Amino acid sequence: MIELDIYSNTPDEISIVERYWAMNSDGKFKESVKDLLPFYHITSTTQLSAFIRSISQAWDMNQICKQCGRYQEVASRSEIKASRQEMHQPCAACQRVIDEELREAEAKIGADLQRRLATASELASSRKIAYIDLPDDIALILIALERAINPRLFTSTFMRSDCRALVPCYVGDFIKKLYKSVAIIDNPSEAVAGTYFVKDNQLWHKSDQVVYSLTPNSTLVANEDAFNTLVLRPFDNNKAILNLWLDYATTDCMRYLLDQCEMHGLYTTAEDDEEIQSIFRTALRTYSVAHMWSAIWKIVKDAASLSTRTYYNREKAAATIPGKISRFLEKVQVGQVTLKRWNRPESQPSGTLGQVFKEIFGIDEETEGTTVMSIFADTELPYSVDSKLSIGELAEPTRQLMTCALARGMEAQVMLLFADMVRNGTDTASAINSVFKAFPVFKKPES
């Protein structure tokens, strides 16, 4: 049965509505919609149904809403149920209430988000840092980032996707380091809608959509001029630099692994990748990246061969890679197999961070892990000059310093740093000590 409300006083219109919804005792409509035509200027069933909806409302008494107990509003004959039943969804009236409550809740969430974003933007715009006080690892990443996105670091904003030239892979991990250290700030007003959201009463963001910029320098010196001092500063926090190198070198290994796996149609899981990174990070304390590439090539090739066997598939074969790497390195350690050196692939540049490590510390993919560990060991300075020495007595340490610089093509960097320190009031002996400290690759000559 149908319950009707008719909002017209015209007899013909009242009649057409009643005829449209009229049903017999069997629950079937008495007349076909086509038989009701023409009516006024209406000649199609679609137009007639629309006209009837405009002057009336109908409720199906066989459909009862569980929430309010009222009948379901229907707009056409096709929505009518032949037998009495309880509805699984809210009725139209209840749904309108739900939708309105949802709109109000979303409006409140949106207003709260905008308030939080305004506060975050204000906080970000007020932040300043002294570049000279940045930790060594953060300073090195910044130097490399400037090269990767030049000139945007000083002139514009950037996103994580713009920084792919920084490292071979996992760029986001290094951008996160800069963000957490406040070396860079985010700009909520420039991000696309949906970048920021509130979760657990905290403001969160989607990292790949965040728009970043360099945090302004806190001194009166221009950002670019202050930034240039980073290149000349001493880098003496060996622990931080070593950890950064291991982070970087691990990405160099992972990029090669991922490329080799893709070449053979193998894809490791996120959990496996974490395990593999831990293995590489430990191995790189002993071996070079070039050594690890040769191991990766063999292991992935073996896994690819395994995937072709009848009782294996690519997924199972890829899952064996972490274990294969560990077992292979164990054999290397006991002398059962020998690691070869692989040249850097043409398709895998070292990234600007790799270039910075090469220029400042003289290390790259061919440097043995044991050598890296010795360079960044927590030991005394490679050369120590007594501040009480006379000019004549300074000749030997000065000669050793320049010999090291010339041997590595770093004489310009050494002289600029030395001159900058003397200009700022550092005595000659202390300046020489600081230069040795800034360039750990300059080894103290054996007597």
What does this 3D model show about the protein?
There is one protein chain. Strands 1, 2, 3 and 4 form a 4-stranded mixed beta sheet that branches. Strands 5-8 form a two-stranded antiparallel sheet. The chain is elongated and about 120 Å long. It has 4 domains: 88 residues, no CATH class; 133 residues, no CATH class; 122 residues, no CATH class; 67 residues, no CATH class. 51% of the residues lie in helices and 8% in strands. By secondary structure, the chain is an alpha+beta fold. A hairpin with a 6-residue loop joins strand 2 and strand 3. The chain starts with a strand and ends in a 9-residue tail after the last helix. Helix 8 packs parallel to helix 10, helix 9 runs parallel beside helix 12 and helix 15 crosses helix 16.
Entry keywords:
447 residues, 4 domains, two-stranded antiparallel ribbon, 8 strands
Largest sheet descriptor:
4 strands, mixed
Q: What is the rounded distance between the termini?
A: 109 Å
What structural category arises from helix and sheet content? alpha+beta
Give the mean pLDDT.
88
Order of helices and strands: EHHEEEHHHHEEEEHHHHHHHHHHH
Low-pLDDT sequence parts: none
The helix fraction, in percent, is 40-55%
Radius of gyration: 36 Å
* Total tally of structural domains: 4
Query: Tally the helices: what do you get?
Result: 17
Number of strands: 8
Query: What spatial form do the alpha-carbon principal axes imply?
Result: elongated
Bin the strand percentage. 5-15%
